[in-house]
Amino acid sequence: MNWWSRLWHRSHLEEQLAKELRFHLDEAEDALLARGRSPDQPARQARLALGGLEQVKEECRDARGTRWAQELLHDIRYALRTFGQKPGFAVVTLLILGLGIGASTVMFAVVDCVLLRPLPFPSPSRLVILHGFMKDFGEFWGFSYPDFTSLKRGVGSLRIAGWTYSGGTLSAPGDAAHVEARQISAELFPVLGAVPLCGRGFRADEDRPGAGPVAMISYHLWQSRFASDCAARKELVFDGKTYEVIGVAPKSFQLSGEADIYTPLGQSTDPRLQNREARFIQVIARLPAGVALDNAQAELAVVSRRLAAQYPKSNAGLSMRIHPLLREVVGDVSGTLWLLLGAIGLVLLVACTNIASLFLTRAVSREREFAMRVALGASRGRVVRQCMTESAVLGLCGGVLGIMLAAVSVHPLVALWPGNLPRAEEIHIDWRVVSCAICISLLCGLVFGLTPALRLPVHRLEEALRAGGRTMSGHTRRLHSPFVIAEVALAFVLLLCAGMLGRTLVMLSSLNPGFNS
Question: Which terminus, N or C, of the chain has the lesser number of Cβ atoms within 10 Å?
């Protein structure tokens, strides 16, 4: 029988153990009676020879290897019973901890999905974005279409793709409506590693002027206008032009926001495509395996100088820079998110300090109980384990409450985020966030569970038994003072941070943007 079976069938094993011990006692009594002992002596002598029923039972439980689990279950039941006797303490602690862990869980979910997770593409670390740079204008994201085609031909160390914003009226199928669109080069889906959910992507011969009008659609449009059907040939009318639908983008696919229609960039009749000074194409690339970022940057510098020599009017002073795509997607929000996570962490620390102070106050009233248990033979470690179990139970319950609060509040809070939060559609509570919340809950429980352990009256049992937890001793006051100091210090830090953020908000609200809206 394995360990789990021994623990699960504990009651059955206890019955077998009791029967076995009863059998051995009866055998010993019968043997003593057979030797001529009086009837009132064999039972007592048999028990003495056995060494005591309870002691033998404990030795058998130790041999099973389940004693610690049984003691843990006993400690949990005892903790729940003590919390039930004083529910006010448990409710206040759960509310404080639940709010603190809930806020921390929401903020960690945002940081995890926006900053820590890779982009939802194969080998996302190899994806880069190209920027232009001019001394008078600084760094900018747009390239002209002629420069884009020159980059595709001239840079061998990168697989390059481009796209730009678009939009128009979708008049069929269904009712007419304005939709967001993107004009993309045929290389975009292969460069990103995105595989169409249905159909195919654009071919190179379709990404040129005069080719047959084809389009890809989003998962949302595929569901709402085409009934999620891949089998039949489909068409749509976009800005008065009929397109054949050749593919459906993956469900999570986005290019700087949601778009419903994707058309070939090379088919566009926009006159800006012929203008080398019209820089409106965003360029994404993939570094092949074994190619370093510095090598690609050096090749871009060579191409930049060649274009500047060939087209001095439009390209003089123009250089090209390369950056990881994740950095571009996240933008400047990284520092703000880490700052907010740190502030929420301070709030949780204040909450833990408050709870530790409550536990210390509660330990005063339980000092007589602890002293009695030590006097009856319980070791310091056994009593400490009981205290830590109580705090861990409260910590886990507070963590469950915090996870529930985070699950119902994460999306409303993201929707209320001022401005555009990158990767907002990816933010959710998953097993990584839940695991982190549970670990934080256990850690918090261990932290504020240490305070009662520091009050164990091992060396002053008589004093503790006489006092009975009626007053707070000098030792207790010395333990209580650091928590008060920590609460005041952390509250001051939070107040200072709030003041700085408020001052920044006032300055931004009074800033003249240079135009009237």
Answer: C
109 contact partners, CB below 8 Å, separation of at least 6: 406, 410, 427, 428, 429, 433
Question: For position 11, what pLDDT does the model report?
Answer: 64
Q: Is the peptide bond before 173 cis (omega within 30 degrees of 0)?
A: yes
Q: What is the distance between the alpha carbons of residues 127 and 191, in angstroms, rounded to a whole number?
A: 8
Q: Are 259 and 163 in contact (CB under 8 A)?
A: no
Residue 28 near residue 50, CB atoms below 8 Å? yes
* pLDDT value at residue 58: 63
Beta-strand pair 127-134/319-324: antiparallel
| Predicted confidence (pLDDT) per residue in 334-368, tens digit | 888 888 888 888 888 888 887 887 887 777 777 77
Query: CB–CB of 370/464 below 8 Å?
Result: yes
Give every residue of the chain whose pLDDT is below 50, as ranges.
3-4, 7-8, 469-472, 476, 505, 508-509, 511, 513-517
DSSP 83-105: HHHSHHHHHHHHHHHHHHHHHHH
The pLDDT value recorded for residue 402 is 93
**Which residues lie below 8 Å from residue 12, measured CB to CB, with a gap of 6+?**
none
* Nearest CA among 512, 360, 369, 402 for reference residue 103: 402
Determine contact, residues 82/390, Cβ cutoff 8 Å: yes
Q: What separation in angstroms does the CA of 229 have from each of 57, 174, 242, 481?
A: 69, 15, 19, 69
Helix (H, G, I), strand (E, B) or coil at 112: helix
| Amino acid identity at 242 | T
pLDDT tens digits, 208-218? 998 999 999 99
String of b and e for 68-82 (b: at least 16 CB within 10 Å)?
eeeeeeebeeebeeb
* 449 touches 392 (CB < 8 A): yes
According to DSSP, the β-strands at 159-172 and 281-286 are: antiparallel
C-alpha distances out from residue 29 to 36, 55, 60, 444, 450, Å: 11, 19, 22, 55, 50
Q: Name 235's bridge partners.
A: 244
pLDDT value at residue 515 = 43
How far apart CA 98 and CA 351 sit, in angstroms, is 10
